[in-house]
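Narrative summary of target 7.
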Amino acid sequence: MSDEAVTIRIGLVSAQPRFTTWLMAAVEDSPRLRLMRVVMTIDRIDPKDIDILVLAGEGMPLQELILYLERNSLRGAILFSVEGAIDPKILMSSSRPLGWLSPEMTRAQFSAAIEAVYAGFNVISAGEESTGGDVEIESLSDRETQVLRFIVEGFSNQMIAEALQISENTVKFHLTNIYSKLGVSRRSAAIRKAIGNGLIAL
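Modeled conformation, tokenized:
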């Protein structure tokens, strides 16, 4: 069975009724997402029943969450409305993907973030503060950012060239610069770094 046909099972830990209602509507909007359990404390979640854990509001410290995910073999977790800045080094230290999301995101963006975490990517949404990251969006030109967004969306070099009305050689030139600035050598690594460092907002 392909990943596209798989239902993503979600467990929600939230003491905020408004957020719970919002998330239930977001899940209804997506045929792949299924809300398995809504609880107020994490100890009431059975990890065997879910793929992605969603924590809303104040939750456990990030390092404790990473240990929880690894102990319970969950696919990943999403954190909403957590106070404080993000240290990408801690985020990247997890063997399981994590999402750190802004409560201002749309339901479609939330669904895309769940899909990205399920697929193995770390996600930091636009508007969330990051500390200690080794890449900043300012280091990429506007055109490089456009090209990066297209590769995150799965465009081939030819498709990018057609969309931007430039030659494929120019696309390759931009990709070389992007890889150099991100410190990677492959397209897949650039995508992971772009999403993980919040360079491309979902």
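The first strand starts at residue 8 and ends at 13.
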